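Sample entry (319 residues):
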Amino acid sequence: MLRQAPSLEAAEAFLAAARARSFRAAAAELALSPSAFSRRIQMLEAFVEAPLFDRSGPAVRLTEVGARYLSQIEPAMETIRRATADLKDAAGRLGRLRLATSHSLAVGWLIPRLPDLLQRHGLEVDLTVGRGPQVLRSGAADIALWGGDGGEDDLACDRIVDLDGVLVSAPTLADGRAPPRRLEDLAAHRMLSVRSPPDLWSHWLSGTGCGMAAASTPFDTSHLMYEAAASGLGVTLAVPLLAERFLAERRLRPCLGVRRPVGSGYSLFYASADLRRRPQIRTFLAWLQEQAAGSLRTFDAWWDAYQRDAAAEPSAAAA
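Predicted structure, serialized as tokens:
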């Protein structure tokens, strides 16, 4: 009997190529060499006897035939992925959760808390570092803990925490200067930021009335940004969860008495509505909310202590 459908490997490569910005990026996503990835695409085009990509321009694009083919096979591939995940759960993987999140949140906050999740609820987490709806739709993860404004291409989600920011720096900057003590002094210092989300400084500054632009030096991850600030390379915004370890170790300290929302927070996203209803996912959600609430209390206590110390300084100086 002649084969009526292409291989799943070829279809998977086609979906990755259709979503990615280039064949090279799609190959990296599937952990394939560029040449091996191209062969899969060529085999698929030979099988369907039609060109699926237009390679004539500077960037590879779907042909009209390719776009139509994508709209038809993408739901079928998603059905296969979800059915496979359900089968794995039925085979006894109910105690394991596949979670996507950022490297900084995983290393700086989540991983140290996972023993508590296992001990109290018997749940283990398989972590994937990644961002974007395709991480869930590709089957790489079932749930995701991501920062942002809560909107991620209409994925179902539950809000975990909204974040405030406090201006912080090392006790002494690398150039020997003291940290800024007034908002007006910010313009004379290097402001450190993270590439995603890109507008934390703008949100934080918007209600301060200082009227300065939010030009900053961006880093790929929050962990790198905080390490740079702790090394005295500039000032940044400390937020609950991500900055917790740096604040506890006193590597970062407040510069002035302003605490404002940064227009961002963390939400738990779901690959499907069915996952959202599963008991182990609901247990994990409640645990996350509990842990985040604890971190908020720690941040509040740190901030209250700073305000008490700052209020006492004039009295100490007068004495």
